[in-house]
Specification:
It is built from eight helices and no strands. It has about 170 residues and is an all-alpha fold. The radius of gyration is 15 Å and the shape is globular. The two termini are about 10 Å apart.
Amino acid sequence: MRARDVAFAGLFAALTAVGAQISIPVGPVPVTLQVFLVLLSGLVLGARLGFLSQLVYVLMGAVGIPVFANFHGGFAVLYGPTGGYIVAFPIAAFLAGYITEKSGGKTGMIVGSLAGVGVIYLLGWLRLGLFLAGDFHKAFLLGVLPFIPVDVIKAALAVLIADRVRKAIDLG
């Protein structure tokens, strides 16, 4: 792995940590810029480095560095109601990057972004449902449904920005 790859992965891990602090509380799941930056990492860096950047972010938080929303950190956050969303970040970045690499163009970026959001919702919804004593309907109403419009906008912005960044910077 080249030093440049490590630097870009580290940059996106740091950006995700900063994006987590831009938070609007909405019930048990806050609205943050994390999803936007997760998608952007996969779209800009590709599947492998996007995955790595988000894995570094999750591991930093897991060991106690306060990189999660509201400056929280530690394994308890991953075990808590929002843990499924966070654990899904590396997978979502990988999917966004992989589908973009295989399909190419904006269409691939759009499909990859929506697949990434879908994985975040799926794992987040499952964890939140377990946290709510198996009430998956309530978990969907609290942790997925209100966020769909916001996350579609985040995905669209990630595609637009990634397209411009990829044209401006040779990441190959």
